């Protein structure tokens, strides 16, 4: 997505989500700013999280993420979206 990301992440026992998000934003902001030869803020301060407690919810959320580029009009079919990455095979 050009203006946001969706990620499904399994946290470890002693791994707070806030620390993971901070590390991700810091790392990606540095890399993107270097690539674009710019500096400054890249990410908004906030993020939205959603806890997944059942396999059915997990499957629905992964499907939602997979289909998001189609809903946004970026591609005609989800499999055509270049930036999709998952350990799950999507059909």
Please give the oligomerization state of what you see: single chain
Number of helices: 2
Q: Characterize the biggest β-sheet.
A: none
Uncertain regions spanning at least 5 consecutive residues: none
| Shape descriptor | flat
Task: Give the C-alpha Rg.
Answer: 15 Å
Mean pLDDT across all residues, rounded?
Answer: 90
Helicity, in percent? Answer: 25-40%
Determine the N-to-C terminus distance: 20 Å
Task: Report the strand count.
Answer: 0
Q: How much strand?
A: under 5%
Element-level helix/strand string = HH
Secondary structure class reads: mainly alpha
Strand-helix topology:
Blueprint: H1 17-35, H2 55-71
What this model shows, in words?
This protein is an all-alpha fold and 91 residues long. The longest helix has 19 residues, at 17-35. The chain has two helices and no strands. The chain has helices spanning 17-35, 55-71.
Question: In a nutshell, what does this entry contain?
Answer:
The protein is mainly α and 91 residues long.
Give structural attributes.
mainly alpha, 2 helices, flat
């Amino acid at each position: 997505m050009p203006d946001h990301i969706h990620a499904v992440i399994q946290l470890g026992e002693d791994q707070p989500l806030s620390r993971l998000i901070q590390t991700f934003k810091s790392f990606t902001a540095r890399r993107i700013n270097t690539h674009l030869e710019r500096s400054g803020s890249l990410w908004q301060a906030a993020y939205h999280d959603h806890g997944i407690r059942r396999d059915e919810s997990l499957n629905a959320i992964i499907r939602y993420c997979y289909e998001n580029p189609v809903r946004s009009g970026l591609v005609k079919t989800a499999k055509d979206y270049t930036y999709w990455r998952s350990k799950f095979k999507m059909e």
